[in-house]
Amino acid sequence: MTGRIAFQGEPGAYSHQACHDARPEMEALPCRTFEDVIEAVRKGDADLAMLPVENSTYGRVADIHHLLPESGLHIIDEAFVRVHINLLAVKGTKLEDVRAAMSHTVLLGQCRGFLQSHGLERITGADTAGSAKIVAEQGNPSVAALASELAGEIYGLDVLARHIEDKQDNTTRFLIMSREPNLARRGDGPMMTTFVFRVRNIPAALYKAMGGFATNGVNMTKLESYMVGGSFTATQFYADIEGHPDDHNVRLALDELRYFTSQMDLLGVYPADPRRQS
Known about the structure:
The protein is of the alpha/beta class. About 30% of the residues lie in helices and about 35% in strands. The chain has nine helices and 15 strands. Strands 1, 2, 3, 4, 5 and 11 form a six-stranded mixed beta sheet that branches. Strand 1, helix 1 and strand 2 (about 25-30) form a beta-alpha-beta unit. The chain is elongated, with a radius of gyration of 21 Å. The two termini are about 25 Å apart.
């Protein structure tokens, strides 16, 4: 597939890395906010959206679950990206020349060991790729950036140290979304189904709604709740399950779920990323 895939952040951001890895044939379109990413696809300025939903270290991405059901877009794929953090500096800089490192506060927190062992001051930047851009523009060898190798390539920076993150399994999960749904089975591996729902106002409704997945042997890999419209009594649930809606056991489980819900919306059906099991 050719065309454009939109992501949030500056060129070289980890979302850009996800686009590069998952859809290398497509042109990546940087956007200022998640809302701008969604709007770019809705308006036809981009064909696909790359949206981060959760990180193995820091949990779900704030606000993204509120945006997905209202986006009008459909999940057609997922991508798991290893977050490798690198120390980037202007050309010709030696590690011993660096006195400070700039990045998003989350990345600074993920490299405490390296920063402490090298006595580097932490400078909080707006984001990772933006910090790399600033380091390149300022040309000060004493200030480096923590970012992806892709950011180093884009802004012409040297990699002084690779993969300096404290946790070697830090991974971000992204959802790839389009204007049109794709419910076809794709690939030879397992499929995933994602949906949101609200339970009816009856006793033990959530417990009863979940019973259909247990009795039909459907594995639910994620179930999260969040308030709707700031109300403490209006709760929506976001769920990922293994399987395709046409599978007999999945169909039975979803039928039972619908009986106990006031609203249920399918967000997407897509192949499971092979790295999901790693």
